[in-house]
Design brief:
Keywords: Methyltransferase, Transferase. The chain is of the alpha/beta class. The protein has two domains: 106 residues, no CATH class; 166 residues, Vaccinia Virus protein VP39 (Rossmann fold). Strand 5, helix 7 and strand 6 form a beta-alpha-beta unit. The structure holds N,N,N-trimethyl-histidine.
């Protein structure tokens, strides 16, 4: 509902910023971390020693590529490999390369909201693994997932790597998995990376690096609001604050205002006041265990086919079917 004080929004980003910053407590969605600067910062995060997730998943894929290839279809079943939010495809390329070298029949269909990211990915695959048939699909996961259902014939395998589902609260994750379930047929597979509960210090360090890369990443949402909505956030007046609850497995990121601040957001015609030490919640990064994953899968009507893990069970790739 719109009253005379709410401006007309020109994007969901604007609408969600308005709603999040006029709510109590304040919040902003981590999906808005990612513009060109944010993408670059996330690349830097993946390269940090503290951010263990990327290396663990890379090694799990590398170690198990033969078994994964067999599971996806081997030399008998032709399949389409879809990927949600492929990024630079560094991890996926391990599989793509192995599939090509072993004459496995498949095509690769990365899905991303950013056409620019897809173009870069396609170009790099054409250069590094030219034998891969690539078809990029631009759009949001959910809309595109629905479109996936229109692709008939071949078996569908959906990749969702990097513990990206961890940005969702459990009820949202169940909705997400239900959407996945609705976009696959019997015999199709969903291959998903989910970071596991572990030493809480290890988790905390991954989201609180001393070099300040994660801090810059978290604050990039304010930088975007400054740039795109004519706001005047002073990034230095916020602390990057990370907490991890080892009971629930939820890591939460905040921006904490170090002093009283009056902020103007021009295109929203909005003025907000932050008290000293007031928080803006920006992200959750959920850590899982088998019980949580089994519960989520069950609620979404999915079955766990198998799982792959590192030797210390710090990260897992689960395979689901309908
Ligand atoms: C891309 C959502 C998996 O939550 O671990 C990295 C994003 N945030 N450092 C994560 C992120 C802070 C990342 N995901």
């Amino acid at each position: 509902m719109q009253n005379k004080n709410t401006p007309t929004f020109t994007s969901t980003f604007e609408q969600e910023v308005y709603e999040g910053l006029t709510a109590f407590p304040k919040h902003l969605s981590s999906k808005y971390f990612y513009d060109e600067v944010g993408d670059k910062l996330f690349q830097d995060i993946m390269a940090m020693p503290e951010y263990y997730l990327t290396d663990l998943e890379f090694n799990i894929l590398d170690k198990n590529k033969a078994e994964i290839a067999e599971l996806f279809g081997g030399n008998n079943t032709e399949f389409s490999l879809f990927e949600l939010g492929a990024g630079d495809g560094k991890k996926t390329k391990i599989l793509l390369r192995y599939f090509v070298e072993n004459q496995i029949s498949f095509d690769y269909r990365p899905i991303d909201i950013s056409q620019n990211a897809l173009d870069k990915l396609e170009e790099s695959i054409k250069e590094e693994i030219p034998d891969v048939k690539v078809n990029t699909l631009q759009g949001t996961y959910f809309d595109t997932l629905r479109d996936i259902d229109k692709v008939n014939g071949k078996r569908k395998v959906i990749l969702f790597l990097g513990s990206n589902m961890g940005n969702l609260l459990h009820p949202q994750a169940v909705e997400f998995l239900k959407n996945m379930r609705d976009s696959v047929n019997a015999g199709d597979l969903i291959f998903m990376g989910l970071d596991q509960k572990k030493n809480p210090q290890t988790v905390l360090d991954a989201y609180n690096d001393k070099t300040g890369i994660t801090e810059a990443f978290n604050k990039n949402i304010l930088a975007r609001i400054n740039k795109e909505m004519g706001a005047n956030f002073d990034l230095d007046k916020f602390l990057h604050w990370e907490v991890y609850d080892p009971e629930t497995g939820t890591a939460k990121s905040y921006l904490v205002s170090k002093e009283v601040q009056n902020i103007r957001i021009e295109s929203l015609e909005l003025k907000i006041r932050l008290k000293a030490w007031e928080t803006i919640h920006t992200e959750i990064s959920q850590k899982y265990d088998d019980e949580i994953v089994e519960w989520l899968a069950e609620k979404a009507g999915l079955k766990i086919v198998t799982q792959f893990s590192d030797s210390k069970q710090q990260y897992k790739n689960y395979v689901f079917k309908k």
